[in-house]
Amino acid sequence: MRRGWSNTAIGIALLAVMLFPVYWMVNVSLQPSGSAVATPWFPVNLSFEGYVTALTQQGSHLLTSLVVAAGTVVFSVAVAAPAAFALAHFKVRGANVVLFAVLISQMVPGIVIANALYSAYTELGLLNSVGGLILADSTHGIPFAILVMRAFMSTVPAEVVEAARVDGAGQIRTFVSVVLPMSRNALITAALFTFLFTWSDFLFALTLTTTEDVRPVTLGLFTYIGTYVNDWSAVMATAVLASIPAFVLLLVAQRFVAAGVTSGAVK
Amino acid sequence: MAEGMSLALPRQATTTAWWSPRRRERLLQLAFLVPAGLYLVAFFGYPLAQNIVMGFQEYTTATFYTGEAPWVGLANYVDVATSAVFGTAVLNTALFTIGSIAGQFGIGLAVALFFRHRFPLSGVLRSLLLLPWLIPLIVSGAVWRWILDQDNGVLNTVLGSLLGGLHPGWLTSTSVALVAVVLVNIWVGIPFNTTILYGGLQDIPQELYEAAALDGATGWRAFRHVTWPLLRPVVTVVLVLGVVYTLKVLDIILGLTGGGPANATQTLATQSYHLSFQEFDFGRGAAMGNILIAISFVFALLYLRVARRADAS
Is the pLDDT of residue A226 over 90? Predict the structure, then answer.
């Protein structure tokens, strides 16, 4: 037992080092603004000025991120769930091709996609649009969601699916009222991570928007630090606000996180 | 069985009415795959093909007005490969990838082995460790940028008080900027490596260690003869995926240094971004991107071979 607690001490020390940057972000965000000099170790002069500035200047960007991320979750899961079911349970020609494409797609650099989408979006009028970002961000969501849900749906016994068919349920009925409810956890994992990936997206925000009309908070933060920074507390307050989904995921949806990471979740 | 038959008799299938139950069933099954198939074609297939075409074209902002993108053969590739930055970018990409992977994997494995010991709070600590991986990369970039600030950053404050006078410009000096960017990327990657390797370690049966201990193999020898051989498949997947994902890293570098100072942290990925979206020379940007893909592809093939072997076992 003593050995156990000494390991706990080492673990806490390790975590303190690893999470120091996160602490520092919170610490700086709570400092009075306008101090470009070295930051004190603790927010003794607690101040929320940084958050006030961040919310006034970046509030609409946070909202954009939320809308884009929510839209991407709905679109990605809607496209991925039927495909995952088909890959897990049907022996259709073309299934292998789709699975191969999903695996390969994870290797394609985002900049290559952005490079081609920029010209296509210019012609289609999708630059600076929420819809355009949702479609592009789904490149993070759809392959991942297919892999997570397929892995889970193949554990749904074929007999269960067949029993539903025997009872007279059509292909679609079986999927919607038998398979989907059974795959709830996989759906939640896929949705949570798609949300997180999209919320974190920076590359498509950077390349597929050219005006301030539709600007996710990641790009807002980048433009903040792109110029000379004289108010780090506002920058760090924005950073904290942009990290809220990560905090929430870790605190509230803990049990889905490990599942997501191990089933091929890779940024 | 029924599916096998309809596959074997295509001629008969085409002569039956289009609404025959079996045919209808197969079409319905295919319909489950169609949305995903179309999406993959439009958002991965099309960009890949389009980049290959653009790589042979003079594709600039003018193209958007005139609609013309003259064919230039290999000129983009020649320009890109003979430019002064190219050698630097290749070298930086290699150093960035090797440095990041070595650090992430080495530390990740050490941390995973440490967490194998069951101790109070280990589960909570292990999950909190994921935080650096979950927060947006551009947020990490912003935070580290302030930590590494030459004059007011907390790192130099500490270094200065410990070893007075030491005051490196982490992100502004050409000789250390790449090291700083690699260190930050290692920090980002440790949680992922730890989690996957920890999962692999958990799959090694405890009895094997007990048997090894009876034969006198404990500690390092147990690691060498039990842990390492059984962890090998997971290690390969982690390393190959690590390489493929590190090659295309963009957010962290753009957030920290933007490829500077004086191209000291320019990689193939940042250079492709620079050519396309800062110089608006999409043809050369595409050429650079295609070179990056060619390199990733070698590792992708390796990954697929590994994945298939893992699937088979």
Answer: no
Q: Which of A7, A87, A108 comes nearest B117 by C-beta?
A: A7
Which CATH number characterizes residue B265's domain?
Answer: 1.10.3720.10
Quote the Cα angle for B152-B156-B157, to 5°: 70
CATH tag, A51-262: 1.10.3720.10
Residue A243: list chain B partners with CB under 8 A.
135-136, 139
Alpha-carbon gap, residue A18 to A190, rounded angstroms? 27
- How far apart (Å, rounded) are the C-alpha atoms in residues A133 and A59? 19
- State whether A225 and B28 contact (CB < 8 Å): no
Is the residue at B268 inside a domain?
yes
Size of interface A-B (CB pairs under 8 A): 295
Query: What share of chain A has pLDDT > 70, as a percent?
Result: 93
Interface test with B, best of A112, A232, A235 (most B CBs within 10 A): A112
Q: pLDDT tens digit string along B124-168?
A: 898 899 999 999 999 999 999 999 988 888 898 888 888 877 788
* Per-residue model confidence as pLDDT tens digits over A98-152: 888 888 888 889 999 999 999 999 989 999 999 999 999 999 999 999 998 998 8
Judging contacts by C-beta atoms under 8 Å, the chain B residues touching residue A118 are: 276-277, 282
Domain count, chain B: 1
Closest residue on chain B to A219 (Cα)? B138
In the prediction, which pLDDT does B13 show?
Answer: 46
Q: Contact A222/B255, CB-based, under 8 Å?
A: yes
Q: With contacts defined as CB-CB under 8 Å, which chain B residues touch A139?
A: 43-44
The answer to whether residue B253 sits within a structural domain is: yes
Instruction: Say yes or no for a CB contact (<8 Å) between B187 and A254.
Output: no
ipTM metric: 0.91
Which residues of A are less than 8 Å from B129 in CB distance? 14-15, 18-19
State whether residue B57 is helix, strand or coil: strand
Q: Is residue B264 part of a domain?
A: yes
Nearest-angstrom CA–CA distance, B78 and B110: 44
A138 vs A73, A79, A129, B24, B307, CA distance in Å? 8, 10, 14, 30, 24
Closest CA to A238 of A111, A53, A88, A36: A53
Locate tokens 């370690």: which residue?
A: B201
Asked if residues B104 and B193 have their Cβ atoms less than 8 Å apart, the reply is yes
What is the distance in angstroms between the CA of the first residue and the CA of the last residue of chain B? 26
B107 located within any domain:
yes
Question: Which two tokens mark A251?
Answer: 């605190």
Q: The domain containing residue B134 runs over which residues?
A: 84-312
Query: What's the pLDDT band for A90 if we cut at 50, 70, 90?
Result: confident
Q: Which residues of A touch B48 (CB under 8 A)?
A: 108, 112, 116
List chain A domain ranges: 51-262
What tokens were used for A260?
Answer: 């997501």
Contacts for A39-45: CB closer than 8 Å, 24+ residues apart: A39/A232, A39/B152, A39/B154
> Closest Cα to residue A73, out of A170, A199, A180?
A199
